[in-house]
Amino acid sequence: MIRNIFSEFKKFAMRGNVMDMAVGIIIGAAFTKIVDSLVKDILMPPLGLLMGKIDFANLFFVLKDGTPAAPYASMDAAKAAGAVTLNVGFFINAIISFVIVAFAVFILIKIMNTLREKLERKEEETAAAAEPTTKKCPFCDSEISIKATKCPHCTADLNDHK
Length: 162
Hints:
Distance between the termini: 63 Å
Strand order of the largest sheet: 1-2
Order of helices and strands: HHEHEHEE
Shape: elongated
Helix content: 55-70%
Largest sheet: 2 strands, antiparallel
Number of strands: 4
Structural class: mainly alpha
Number of domains: 2
């Protein structure tokens, strides 16, 4: 029984879709780290500078003072004092990261859909090209349309000859 369950799980895990999903999750995790760094290290510092030298990583509100009491110079100082804080800056960073990841996924899906449509069109064209469009007249041996019911060369009625 346990051997059978293990065997079924092994078959499931080795399917292409599961392996593709695993690779996607690993790449997605790495991509998320890159986007987080892009937001925190590249986008937010100039944005904070433009908005009056705001450091979004230290944008927080004190809900309950710690020891010593507020004000705190940084988020780390507030945490070290045991203060309860509302971390707005981290939330803003997370929203920006989400928008960037969502946009990247949108672009990826758009590209994949475009490629799939091109491939489907090409397959349809290939299938249409593979179907014959002409036939030989059985009476005069001329090349005629496959849809013809009367030969345009010898005027033979092709419905009588099948």
